[in-house]
Structure formats: structure tokens, C-alpha cells
Amino acid sequence: MKISFLQGKKKLMTLALTVGFAVALAGCGQEGTVDGDASIGAQVNYQITGIDPGAGLMRATDRVLEEYELDGWRVQTGSGPAMTAALTRAYNNEEPIIVTGWTPHWKFSKFDLKYLDDPKGIYGDEEFVHTIVRLGLKDDHPAAYEVLDRFAWTPDDMASIMVMVEDGMQPTEAAASWIADNAETVATWTEGVEAVDGDRLTLAYVAWDSEIASNNVIAQVLETVGYDVTLRQVEPGPMWAGVADGSADAMVAAWLPTTHADYYSEFEGRFEDLGVNMVGTRIGLVVPAYMDIDSIEDLNSK
């Protein structure tokens, strides 16, 4: 499995951003435990800690500020690792923080967290993760198409890999461990598929912990049937554009109907949707359970 030069460059950029973001947060004056006498807004400096600016989750959060009339609030853009670094620091010091979150994610295994209720439904209901492939893949690589079409697993499966990675295991090692422990599930994806001899495939993905897990798993499974797989780490827009223009063969990271709705509409007709590979996912605003707030609409009043 090959990791592109772009992925290595992106890792360095992400590391620099994570460190810089954590340093910036250290000077925000949020030291100490939650001040119950201050409003939630005052406790968090009227800031929501977000992820990549191009993510659908961030666009939905911008809508939250408008629809809930959160005047004076801002969404801090960054990255997934920067968000979790900020959350870890705040949680360990029992400080208030509001982050953009999604399930499955290892943070729910490590910390006692809760989603804020969303009465206006900005974040939608349950999310589904779809497998999207380029047009013509079925004819060019029928074995890969078959494996990708069968690929389906659970949030618990994905979360177990994310926890292993967070505990220090390399993503490739965590994926291999999961595959070894779930041979029966993997067999449902590969049984009867005719092996190939080194055919090349490119999978595009976004550098979210969840998608690092899923892509390392499906890449290794495709390699067991003879494919030479390259993982290409990109932003959400280029991920969709790559499948639409054929420079990437597939992605297993399309969060719908909310997170990637704009990209689905923009490129519709230029890809094939193989359907849902995971149910039971969710996006929204997340806070530590020790914070005295349960709904987004309370951000103006508490």
C-alpha cells in the first residue's frame, strides 16, 4: 500500500497546525474548572472549536450560528487533530469547551462527552457513510468493484481501530489487527472474488481519524485480492472531484445526507454511488458531560 507524497506533506502541515493551535489555545485564558456563575458563552470565549474549513460539518456549524442567532460567536477552523488536541487539554483540566464532533470517533471512548440537542435540525438526523466509485470502474476493475460494493461494517468496528491508533499503534497495524480479528466479516467482502495481479487502484480520503481507519482497512483487503493500492489524502472537495474526473478510483468516506451534500449535488452524474457502507453515524456540537448545557438553543441564555 503506497502513501502519496501529498499525504506525507499533509502530515507535516497538520502537525504544525496542531502544535500552533494548541499553543494559541494555551493563551485563551480558559485555565481552571467550569465557572458555573458565568454564561456558557463567556466560559468558552464565545468560540466553537472546529475542524477543516472545507468540511460539510463546518458549513453546517456556520448555519447554526445564523439559525440560532448566536451573535458574537465564532467557529475556530483548524483540523481534526487540532480539535482533539484542544478537547484533550480542556477535558484533562476540566475546562469548558465546545467542539464540532462526529460518531464514530475515539474521543467518545476516551472521554465522557455528550451531543448538544439540535431542535432546528441543522445537523440532520442519522448520517450514513457511502461508497462512491468513478464511472467505468466496474468494467475496468470488476474485482475491486465487487469488494467495494460489498464493503459494510459498523461504527464499533471503526471505533476499535481509531482507539488502537490513538493508543499509539500505526494505522496500518491497527487495520491489520482488526482484519485478523474479523476474518468472517472480511470474507463476506472477498469470497468468490477473482484475484488480480498487481492492478493499480487509488483511493481518496480525508484525514479524519474515522476515514484513516476505513481506508487502511479497505486498502489492505483489496491488496489481499492482488491490487496495488495507493491512498491519496486530500480535502473533501478534491476527494469528490478526484472520483468525478477519474484521477481517483473510489472513496469509502462519503458522509450523507448532510456532511457532503453539496459535493454530492455538485458532481452528481459523474460518479457511481454503491450505497451505504455504515449506518449509525452522527454529527453535531459536542461538549464534556461536566458542562451544564444540553441544547444549542441554550447557548444564548446560559
TrEMBL record:
Transmembrane segment boundaries: none
Name under which the protein is recorded: Glycine betaine/carnitine transport binding protein GbuC
Signal peptide residues on this chain, from the entry's feature table: 1-26
SUPFAM superfamilies in alphabetical order: Periplasmic binding protein-like II
One GO cellular component term noted in the UniProt record for this chain: ATP-binding cassette (ABC) transporter complex
ABC-type glycine betaine transport system substrate-binding domain ranges (all copies): 42-180, 200-300
Species, as recorded: Heliorestis convoluta
Location of the protein in the cell: Cell membrane
GN (gene name): gbuC
Domain of life: Bacteria
PANTHER family: GLYCINE BETAINE/PROLINE BETAINE TRANSPORT SYSTEM PERMEASE PROTEIN PROW, GLYCINE BETAINE_PROLINE BETAINE TRANSPORT SYSTEM PERMEASE PROTEIN PROW
Keyword Signal among record annotations: yes
Any GO BP annotation: glycine betaine transport
CDD domains: PBP2_OpuAC_like
InterPro entries: ABC_Gly_betaine_transp_sub-bd
Molecular function terms, GO-annotated: amine transmembrane transporter activity; carnitine transmembrane transporter activity
